[in-house]
Amino acid sequence: MRILLTNDDGINAAGLNAARRALERCGDVWVVAPEKPRSAAGHAITLHKPLRINPWPATPSHRSFSVSGTPSDCVTLGHDVIMNGECDLVVSGINHGTNLGWDLTYSGTVSAAMEGAVIGLPSIAISQEVVPGHTAELKHDFEIASSILVMLVEKLLDDPLPSFTLLNVNVPFGAVPDQFRVTSQGTRVYLDRFAERFDPSGRPYYWITGHPAHDEDHRDTDVNCLKKGLTSVTPVQLDMTAYHLIEQVKGWQPG
Ligand code: MN
Question: CATH assignment of 2-189+217-250?
Answer without folding.
Answer: 3.40.1210.10
